[in-house]
Every structure is written in C-alpha cells, then in structure tokens.
Amino acid sequence: MNIGDAAQASGVSAKMIRHYESIGLVDAPPRTEGGYRRYDERAVHTLRFVRRARNLGFSLDEIRDLLSLWHDRGRASADVKALTLRHVADLEQRIAELANMRDTLRHLAQACSGDDRPDCPILADMAQPESGDGCHH
To answer: What are the b/e assignments for 85-118, b being 16+ CB within 10 Å?
Structure first.
C-alpha cells in the first residue's frame, strides 16, 4: 500500500509517518521503481503501535524503547513495566503541576472584579518575580 493507504489504515498522518521515518523511529519502507513508499501490514501495525503509545503520552524516546522491547522476543516484561511506571510517575507529576496552575488561576480569577476598572490582579501577579513555586495565593 502507498503512504496514503498506510496513513488511513494506521491513523497516523502521512506527514507524521514521514517524520517518524526521518528520525529513525520507524524504518523507511522499500520504494517502487518510481520512488513511492510501499507499506505492508507489519509497517501499518508498527504505526498503530506508535499512535497508541503517543495517545498514552509516551515521548518519542520512550516509544523508541517500547518498540525495541516489542520487537525483542527475549525481553523481560519487567523492563516494559518499569518504563511504564516511570511514565506514570511523570504523568502524576504533570497532573500535580497542572492542578497547581488551575488552583492559582482560579484564585486570581476570584480576586479579579471583572469590571471596567483597569486594576487587574491577574496581570499584576504575572508581572511579579517568580516565587519559586509558581503559586502566589
């Protein structure tokens, strides 16, 4: 199949397929005599794997490691689990940071009268030097 067919079958855009190939995340497929990429089911399966891992928030480097483990039939499942648990810890940290941002913004919005006056505690807070934790309430 051509790149358009592979994109449709995998759910990964042709642009992203070319990008993944250019960075070596996935192997470039063989080409026809006319220079067109030719994808088989194995390539589409790999692209689906990458799409699913991206949807789960794994970085490209983590996906590279996951692909390596996926292709290594002698892998230890403990290696996959450890990589996944590191990713979970990263997600939990990001969730905490996002919750902190939400709480700060909610506090600032509550402090704002939202009327026609120019006083704006939201802008005033953003103009202040960093306190270290990003939270000023």
So the answer is: eebeeeeeeeeeeeeeeeebeebbeeeeeeeeee
Q: Which domain holds residue 88?
A: 82-137
What is the value of pTM for the model shown?
A: 0.77
| Whether residues 66 and 118 fall in one domain | no
- Give the closest residue to 4 by CA, choosing from 47, 31, 51, 39: 39
Same domain, yes or no: 29 and 96? no
**Hey, what's the torsion of the CAs at 41, 47, 53, 59, to 10 degrees?**
150
pLDDT tens per residue across span 101-119: 999 999 999 988 888 888 8
Residue 62 near residue 83 (C-beta atoms within 8 A): yes
Residues of the chain with pLDDT under 50: 137
Going through the chain in order, the beta strands assigned E by DSSP cover: none
Q: Are 54 and 116 in the same domain?
A: no
Q: Measured between alpha carbons, how far is 18 from 26 in angstroms, rounded to an integer?
A: 9
